[in-house]
Design a protein that fits this description.
alpha/beta, Rossmann fold, 8 helices
Length: about 180
């Protein structure tokens, strides 16, 4: 895997375990030579990820809408920062730059980006691996809802099984890397 798009919070959350996991995951990505693709922010877990990859000599590309740049949340020290007009353009460019996707803990923006990529997979628009780093059981309730959606006939079991879920950074990265489909 050459590049991985990570969706995560513009906040660091209340529990230091989230920052620790973001730091650990970013370090692991850098050691594996994987470029970080992310939302371009300097704040929260996004900033932690980017700063850690850069600190260890890795490559980071951020994609941020003009409106967020105007609010001065764009990370100034990235390998490359793409400034786009809209959130849709942000998601499209992150998709184009990445070979896979992972969500770390975050809020509505994190879930919005994750769900768009998951929906594109459901529609057959891509076969890139998608996963959750389930730090401290953060995504457990959401994963339970996914199972309910399968039981009630709204989501296919195949789609649910395609989502890689791990609470261990190394296992997650290994499983994502082994699911790369080169086109």
């Amino acid at each position: 895997m050459k590049s991985l798009c990570v969706f995560c919070g513009a906040s660091a959350g209340n529990n230091p375990i989230y920052k620790e996991a973001a730091t650990s995951f970013a370090s692991l990505m850098t050691r594996a030579g994987i470029e970080l693709i992310f939302g371009g922010g300097k704040v929260g877990l996004m900033g932690v990820l980017a700063d850690t990859v850069l600190k260890h000599g890795g490559s980071v590309q951020g994609v941020i809408p003009e409106g967020l740049m105007d609010q001065e949340v764009g990370h100034p020290g990235l390998t490359k920062l793409h400034v786009v007009s809209t959130m849709h353009q942000r998601k499209e460019l992150m998709y184009d730059l990445a070979e896979g996707f992972v969500a770390l803990p975050g809020g509505f923006g994190t879930l919005d980006e994750f769900f768009e990529i998951l929906t594109w997979s459901q529609l057959g628009l891509h076969k890139k691996p998608i996963g959750f780093l389930n730090v401290n059981g953060y995504f457990n309730h959401l994963l339970n809802h996914f199972e309910l959606a399968v039981e009630e006939g709204f989501v296919s079991e195949k789609l649910l099984q395609s989502i890689i879920v791990e609470d261990n950074e190394e296992l997650l990265l290994m499983r994502l890397s082994s699911n790369i489909i080169r086109i």
